[in-house]
Write a structure and sequence with these properties.
Elements: H1 2-8, H2 11-18, H3 22-48, H4 57-85, H5 87-91, H6 94-116, H7 133-156
Helix pairs in contact: 2-4, 3-4, 3-7, 6-7
Length: 159
């Protein structure tokens, strides 16, 4: 609780609560980051599940992964000031903790996918074959984790 009070009493948190424009602008930035992230992850996951096999995985990977990483960075960068403005309220919210657990699960899932897929440079990345079963399972879980994160985050504002 002491850490939460410290965060809420910071200059940035006070500014976020008192400024007419800061909270809405950071909220818009957070939303843009989430859109970039999920808008990039979903097509990648669908390709890993076997959709669009006519498109080599490497083509999608090179475009979508940097966009997803940028979206994640923007969402975190803008989400932190939103959090500290009402840290105690968020810390008391089961939906917030559900969102954080789903987010961490989605991020850990990325590590697993990277371990399952063949090394970059292998012929797999340029082929039109269906990815390994483990990658397809991880892609399905990824969709569940990211959409769950999105839903929990959206519901926080209502409950």
């Amino acid at each position: 609780m002491e850490l939460l009070n410290l965060l809420e009493s910071s200059g940035l948190a006070t500014h976020m609560r008192l400024s007419t424009w800061s909270y809405p602008l950071f909220n818009a930035g957070h939303l843009l980051g989430v859109c970039l992230l999920i808008g990039s992850i979903l097509p990648m996951d669908l390709r890993l599940m076997g959709c669009w096999r006519s498109i080599p995985l490497l083509q999608l990977w090179r475009v979508l992964i940097p966009v997803a990483a940028s979206g994640l960075g923007l969402a975190v960068l803008c989400g932190f000031p939103l959090f500290i403005a009402r840290a105690s309220d968020y810390a008391a919210s089961p939906l917030f903790w559900g969102k954080m657990i789903l987010l961490l699960s989605a991020l850990f899932n990325i590590v697993i996918v990277r371990a399952i897929l063949p090394r970059p440079g292998s012929s797999f990345w340029l082929s039109h074959e269906t990815p390994p079963t483990g990658a397809r399972i991880c892609a399905t879980l990824s969709i569940v984790f990211w959409l769950g994160t999105l839903l929990a985050g959206r519901l926080i504002g209502y409950f």
